[in-house]
TrEMBL record:
Matches recorded under Gene3D superfamilies: Acyl-CoA dehydrogenase/oxidase, N-terminal domain, Butyryl-CoA Dehydrogenase, subunit A, domain 2, Butyryl-CoA Dehydrogenase, subunit A, domain 3
UniProt domain Acyl-CoA oxidase/dehydrogenase middle: residue ranges: 139-230
Source organism (scientific name): Streptomyces zingiberis
Organism domain of life: Bacteria
Acyl-CoA dehydrogenase/oxidase N-terminal domain location: 23-135
Domain Acyl-CoA dehydrogenase/oxidase C-terminal per the UniProt entry, residue ranges: 243-389
Protein's recorded name: Acyl-CoA dehydrogenase
Lineage, uppermost ranks: Bacteria, Bacillati, Actinomycetota, Actinomycetes, Kitasatosporales
Amino acid sequence: MPAAAAPPFDPLDPLGLDDLLDAEERAVRDTVRRWAAERVQPEIAGWYERGELPVIRELTRELGALGALGMPLRGYGCAGASAVQYGLTCLELEAADSGIRSLVSVQGSLAMYAVHRYGSEEQKERWLPPMAAGEVIGCFALTEPDHGSDPGSMRTRARREPGGDWVLDGRKTWITNGSVAGVAVVWARTDEGVRGFLVPAGTPGFSAPEIRHKWSLRASVTSELVLDGVRLPAGAVLPGATGLGAPLGCLTHARYGIVWGSMGAARSCFESALGYAREREQFGRPIGGFQLTQAKLADMALELHKGLLLAHHLGRRMDAGTLRPEQVSFGKLNNVREAIAVCRTARTILGANGISLEYPVMRHATNLESVLTYEGTVEMHQLVLGKALTGIDAFR
């Protein structure tokens, strides 16, 4: 039997990775890609330049209607999608902007996941359906002004009062969605260890001033949370969360989305550079015809599609229930670092135009500087992998 003819080479899918997806996965990807193209891409440069996301509540409701919020969770109005489908959603959202993917990640993989994984049935029934619909925005408050990579040293405290109420005091910072959240998942030290608390917006003593003057993730709401004698009923504590392993488990779930999302930013920059190299002429020919430019494009394509292969592999492992936290660290460390390299190389191909918001390159590059840091810095993920490789804990 003669061998089947190989399909034509696709510069945008040189390894034929589309063949790894089934029809339902492609449909999810295409739906999210269309939504991002229609709702985000026409406005994102202006939002970024002005440092605002003025339609965050409208976008959140639309994302809820798409089933993108709490996407892999089951029940309570959540889509119950596969890990790969969720990863593809993160890929397409971050191809539009990291801030949009962060909105979805914090809502679903941090706030909603914490309630779904560690909450009581009453808490799940109260919060998850409106959060899945995008009617209530959530945030996840772990990082503090003096404690980012070392959350075990957090100073926010919760004390139990006679009668069962809890009183929280402390500060959290760099909290995505904080100023617009209807509920905050706040982690605090207690006499029993680290516990999680659901703090509704408007609770006396709780405020969330927005952080301004950012040069990264400008189209995203980032806030400080202030807890000054915040009194909560006994039913506000997440009953299944005791110890630092609970918030770290949430972070592992969210980091998985970053493995995919960072490749969306890289893809956007690669495609922009490729198109520019085909059209921009210097010395009487398109710059894509020069060897140095072709070498850059080849290296960018290699790292982009190796990162996508890694994301696919981790997604299949998550769906099989065999994904380990160390493997998520592997993906987060590699893919974000390589995505930044792709963006920087794309900037050189675009020359001076690479710094203009007429193109997405510099916006993605600056956004990824935040993605590189949050949910585990390079150094923290290197140490996670170092411990896994050697069996020796070098964190302290």
